[in-house]
Design a protein that fits this description.
The protein is α+β, with helices and mostly antiparallel strands. It has two domains: about 30-175, no CATH class; about 180-275, Transferase(Phosphotransferase), domain 1. It is about 40% helix and about 20% strand. The chain contains eight helices and twelve strands. The protein has helices spanning about 5-25, 50-55, 95, 100-130, 180-190, 195-215, 225, 250-270, and strands at about 60-65, 70-75, 80-85, 140-145, 155, 165, 175, 180, 215-220, 230, 235, 245. The chain has a seven-stranded mixed β-sheet with strand order 4-7-3-2-1-5-6, covered by helices on one side. Helix 6 runs antiparallel to helix 8 (about 250-270). The longest helix has about 30 residues, at about 100-130. The protein starts with a helix and ends in a 15-residue tail after the last helix. The model is unreliable at about 15-25 and about 275-280 (pLDDT under 50).
Length: about 280
């Protein structure tokens, strides 16, 4: 190939990559095709209190996490999260059925099974949170199975301001109370010199960890500044995809580990409160 043709091809390729990256950044990667797949959760459907009055309003794009896209209700009180199916099932339709040599068939089957197991784990974690950790996770409503009862369309407004309609009966989603994120809360209290409220928040966080572990529930992704928020001074775990049931012996070890990590975090980020005395701030 002539050098000038190679150069034009390279420029065209780089331009396509740049356009794709630009679109991804502008939309945070969201599109309707990414929140649906042929995956059906195998756990038993659970009865939930319907929150259709909340779902009657539009929800505007709030952020993108590893497992979900988050949207904020128009009244600012509620967060709706829809699951990212594309992480788990990029092999769909024709690509899922096309004949392949045995080696590649085994590879495809392994990939699909691994991703199905991952999504099953995320949904089971949400189910555990709803049944046993609802208040402490700010959880209001959970919809993990296809249904025919909601009979409702919901408007999602993406990062570009474009409105999309989704069928709630056919969409897996969760609803949570909107919280003030850990870093934002602590920074605001610091600026207000509200030492007592900071103590209350930290004490609530300690109590949250202790109570969860005593219930025999582990959170494998307890990243404080990303996955912890506050309702007033009440600590809340907003990431619902990393809970699992553990034994009593494991729970005791987990409690000691999480509290040690929390103590180190406070010492590093809030040294002025390292020695705060509170009946619930007892570290092993």
């Amino acid at each position: 190939m002539h050098k000038s043709k190679k150069l034009r091809f390279l420029i065209a390729f780089l331009a396509l990559v740049a356009i794709e990256r630009f679109c991804y950044v502008q939309t945070a990667g969201f599109r309707l095709g990414k929140i649906h797949s042929d995956f059906v959760y195998e756990g038993a459907p659970i009865a939930t209190e319907e929150k259709q009055e909340v779902l009657a309003q539009p929800f505007r794009f709030l952020g993108s996490g590893v497992q979900c896209y988050a949207f904020l209700s128009q009244d600012g009180t509620t967060v709706l999260k829809v699951f990212k199916h594309y992480h788990n099932f990029p092999i769909e339709g024709f690509l899922k059925e096309v004949p392949l040599p045995p080696l590649f068939q085994r590879w495809r089957a392994h990939i699909l099974e691994r991703r199905k197991t991952r999504l099953e784990s995320i949904f089971a974690s949400c189910e555990l949170a709803y049944s046993e950790w609802r208040k402490e996770s700010g959880l209001l409503f959970i919809h993990l199975h296809p249904t025919k009862t909601l009979k409702q369309k919901l408007t999602l407004i993406d990062k570009l301001g474009i409105a999309h309609k989704i069928d709630l009966d056919q969409t897996a989603f969760i609803l949570q109370k909107r919280v003030e994120m850990f870093s934002e809360k602590m920074e605001r209290l610091r600026q207000n010199n509200d030492s007592e409220k900071i103590k209350e928040c930290l004490a609530s966080l300690v109590s949250l960890i202790q109570t969860r572990c005593e219930k025999g529930i582990e959170n494998s992704d307890l990243r404080l500044e990303r996955n912890i928020g506050f309702l007033g001074t009440q600590a809340v775990e907003i990431d619902l995809g990393s809970f699992r049931r553990i034994s009593h012996m494991e729970s005791q070890k987990e409690k000691r580990r999480e509290l040690r990590e929390l103590k180190r975090f406070i010492k590093h980020s809030y040294p002025e409160h390292e020695g705060v005395q509170h009946k619930s701030m007892v570290f092993p």
